[in-house]
Amino acid sequence: GDYAFANCPLLNGVPFVEGSMNAVRCPLTRIGRYAFAGTGNWSLLKFPDTITTIYEGAFANCGKISTIWWPAKVNRIPYKCFDNVSCDYFQMDECDSELSLDARSMPRTINSLYLKRPIDKTNWHQFGENHETYYVYIGHGNKIIPECAFINSSLQYVKISNEVESIEYSAFAMCTGLTEIQIPNSVTTIG
Fold first, then answer.
1. Per-residue pLDDT tens for 7-57?
2. Which burial class, exposed, middle or buried, applies to 191 when counting CB atoms under 10 A from its CB (0-12, 13-18, 19+)?
3. Nearest to 160 by CA among 115, 130, 127
4. pTM for this model (two decimals)
5. I need a surface site. Which of 60, 118, 174, 185 has the fewest CB within 10 A?
């Protein structure tokens, strides 16, 4: 439920996935508002296949979550879900359904980001300005990297899958640390 484990700073994660030591054995379908906000540092946040809904601020202020695997059945990363959080690795399970991002929903710092599902075109700004993302893979289901997607971000490396056809105006503008980008033959338009 809402605030279920909020502000338990010594709680360093919950093993949701079957097979993990002390895993939650119930068919978890939802995580409430701010349910784990303010808990300690997590090494892994991976959800069971049964999860369908995650509410606002669920993991806000957790400090660091080393690895986040976003579930395929959850089509929205809610408002402040990972507010004031940093992570090393953020991956979205590959699927065809479009993912929507609410304001301030992504971790502030992501060392490696793997977008393996379509992202709502209006939400790409979440990855750009004032976010520290160093490596991004833009994959499955994304045909366009929209205008200002990563503008003024701290990107250093970008790999784009062969599904992308267009990179729009200022998509990577002012990425002053960008040293390498792999653009596939599928891209026919830049700018």
1. 999 998 887 765 554 555 568 899 999 999 999 889 889 888 889 999 999
2. exposed
3. 115
4. 0.89
5. 185
